[in-house]
Design a protein that fits this description.
34% strand; 2 domains; 8-stranded mixed β-sheet; 7 helices; Rossmann fold; 254 residues
């Protein structure tokens, strides 16, 4: 994943993302199946979910493959600690690891992976590896919560593209190309970021590839990985997913 330069513009581009909704979904599930003390956030990015969870008293380990993303996350954590206190017990640990091979010394109560992070695993075996590793990293009764873009969402991207943004600080042109046979999409982004204090823009080129999987296959893959119970929901709501679902949410219990 090409996040090296992208990391430093990520929050500007993602400021409208519904991070509170992801946190609310997790809280709703935890209220039903047990509130965790320890949480792993796979593909944590710049910490937009991990930091608010830690502020409420959870001990959160943010795992990401990008050292640059984690550097931004650490800077944000430092700024948050200067401005506000963390509830007792709350803590953060940032680790540079592959989400297919992540490991901690002790098992945790819950694992989350939001913002369609797992769509970046574009081969079935890669996804199965991440599922098996997560199963091993959970305590008995632990929960695995994640969301993924569906085939319907990737097809919508392909139909609606190109996308563009023109802003004072950052602008972009975003095109997509869909491989319908694999339901795999390539996002090509050309980003123009204004350099602070200079009347010029810096150009950043990014390519991101995601794949959507059949929801039934995902459910079966979670069971094959060892999870005893699997539930799936639609678009941030505790309602069953269907063919119109754009963002499918899964809850798997060990």
């Amino acid at each position: 994943m090409a996040y090296e330069k992208f990391a430093y513009t990520y929050d500007l581009l993602m400021e409208d993302m519904p991070y509170p909704q992801w946190i609310r979904f997790a809280r709703q599930i935890w209220d039903q199946y047990g509130s965790p003390r320890t949480v792993v956030d796979l593909g944590c990015g710049t910490g937009n979910i991990a930091i608010p969870l830690a502020q409420t008293g959870l001990h959160v380990t943010g795992i990401d493959l990008s050292a640059d993303m984690l550097a931004v996350a650490r800077d944000k954590e430092e700024q948050h600690r200067k401005r506000s206190s963390f509830a007792p017990g709350g803590g953060l640990l940032w680790l540079e690891q592959d989400i297919r091979e992540w490991a901690l010394p002790e098992r945790v109560d819950s694992v989350i992976s939001f913002c369609d992070c797992l769509n970046y695993l574009t081969e079935e075996e890669q996804l199965l590896q991440a599922f098996r590793q997560t199963y091993e990293g959970l305590v008995e009764g632990g929960t695995f919560l994640f969301d993924m873009h569906t085939e319907a969402q990737l097809k919508a991207y392909a139909e609606m593209q190109p996308f563009w943004l023109k802003d004072e600080l950052v602008s972009y042109i975003w095109t997509c190309e869909l491989d319908e046979a694999r339901c795999e999409i390539e996002h090509d982004l050309t980003i123009f970021l204004k350099d602070e204090g200079a009347p010029v823009y810096r150009r950043i080129d990014e390519v991101h590839v995601q794949r959507a999987y059949k929801l039934d296959w995902l459910e079966q893959a979670l069971h094959r990985s060892g999870f005893s119970r699997v539930m799936r929901f639609a678009d941030f709501k505790l309602q069953p997913s269907d063919e119109r679902t754009e963002r499918a949410f899964f809850v798997a219990i060990k």
